[in-house]
Batch of 2 targets.
Target 1
Amino acid sequence: MTTAPLTGEPLALDLVNTVASTPGGEVDLLESAGDLRAWLAAEQGRLDITDGQIDLGAVRALRAHIARAVEAGRARTPPPLEALRTITDAQRNAPVYQELGWNGQAMTIATRRPGNATAVLLAQLAEAAATLLASPAIGLVRRCEGPGCRMLFLPAHPRRRWCSPATCGNRARVARYYQLHKENREPSRSANRD
Ligand SMILES: [Zn+2]
């Protein structure tokens, strides 16, 4: 129901989930530069953003490759080689290095990446994807059981079934309530004086 991006999953899943399911169908939550800014703000603290214009098309293209690789990982089937190559290339374009500094008392290091804003962002998204894809956790990633919902999540406990208890979980509870209500009413209806 909500079109606010689902966040708080591993970064790669948060990215894939920006193609969101709504009752009206799929919605791309990264359709405009403003959408991307909002998503980056929601992911603040998980990404280092370099000033400059970000190529939205490149972000969406990487997202599609990550989505395919995640599906393969979940299904334990061979991933598309193009997806692996794209994810690797994105990291190679802006590899991380440690910048040494001096704070007046001690030497410090800061994590940096060379490259423009797009390259730096893609490299971080690709790194997050690679880490998840090569981890046993990929086999635990689930798709929400909400009707028509395709959101992915990594359950912290095995009973989790919904992307969000407030939306899909609630919808399922409401559906169950009506189903139960209907079942309870139907026998009594035949015995009804009406
Ligand atoms: Zn859901």
Target 2
Amino acid sequence: MRETTDILISGGGVAGLTAAAAFGAAGFRVICVDPAPPVTGAEEDGADLRTTAFLQPARAVLEAAGLWERLAPHAAALKVMRIVDAGGEAPEPRIVKDFDAAEIGEEPFGWNFPNWLLRRETVARIAELPNVSFRPGVATAGVLTRTDAALVTLSDGTTVSARLLVAADGRASPVREAAGIGVKTTRYGQKALAFAVTHPIPHDNVSTEIHRTGGPFTLVPLPDRDGRPCSAIVWMETGPEVLRLAALPVAEFEAEMLARSAGLFGPLTLVTRRSVWPIISQIADRFEAERIALLAEAAHVVPPIGAQGLNMSLADLACLVDLAKAAPDRLGERAMLLAYHRRRWPEVKARVTGIDLLNRTSMLGARPLRDLRAGALNALYSLAPVRRTLMKAGLGMR
Ligand SMILES: Cc1cc2nc3c(=O)[nH]c(=O)nc-3n(C[C@H](O)[C@H](O)[C@H](O)COP(=O)(O)OP(=O)(O)OC[C@H]3O[C@@H](n4cnc5c(N)ncnc54)[C@H](O)[C@@H]3O)c2cc1C
């Protein structure tokens, strides 16, 4: 069978599904394919237990896609980002610095959501859009491009002719491979554990990042669970240490968590499975090829620090949608794709470099270096203009 469409999105992860809703809401005909059906319940096998903190600029993208009103009732606001250095002799807080969103405006820094819920609400939104066809269970199998279209063979035997092929098929993107675009990858020998906990001491909408060795231990607020304060945790460590922690009996794991959290929230109770994620930095050499745009992790991957990953992806998406709406007749043409690459690549490259540096700083094991890190945090924080600039830069504001 042969079909035509404006946009084919390869990949229905959080980024691909959001792109399908955004382009659909902008009036384009969209097909989105993914071999894996989306898991939309917390308790189901394979549920993505990570959470995503959408930062302020993401909200406009979600509003335009018709997603924000669905998500807002489930949001946990992030009003303060607290950085704790516990890198001294004992695992105790020795420096605590609060970056308060109230210093730079009236809005919180962002809002946190579980990834499985993002998938549920986005799939429901797409179902309302008659010009969007989401096809779970179908993969991109072959890509051929010409100057006027991308010809994509799907695993169900369909051939689709699309004016624009959006690669949102993850860090090992098959579309990127087919287009012959290389990547630069940095490995840290690190992994992340992602899970949720409840705790007796409320989080007060503060996101807390605790640094000692091996990588940050970050608590991000979630709405209360069973009447108790609840947080999502991302715990980064060396690969073998993460595998050891993931295999510990729950009581022993909870004891290790309590120590690593420096007791700041009282005893932590594990309320989900523990999921393990490899940590890398990666950037594609180019974000475009003939009739193809790379989006989200197909274009860039960063360690989960400062909630940058998917927020960079939504900035990619906003840029692509703006370009498409400005000249719908020229969708997928070379000039549009070059403009996308020029606007996004340098900005993403700068962020990947910055987050790489932050991650290396957080991994430091040697005591004198940990002391230097604490000193740098103190110095950066105490200058109010530097502090405000850092907060705005973290949000992606100019
Ligand atoms: C522990 C952790 C915490 C994080 N926290 C945050 C946060 O707070 N804020 C933030 O902004 N970011 C965060 N991130 C990053 C964020 O989770 C990722 O950027 C995001 O989930 C990646 O989305 P994606 O859609 O690009 O990729 P994926 O979720 O990997 O989706 C790719 C999809 O492509 C599909 N696919 C594969 N092959 C094919 C094919 N041949 N054809 C079609 N489809 C295919 C796959 O099945 C998959 O569904 C975090 C990451 C980690 C590891």
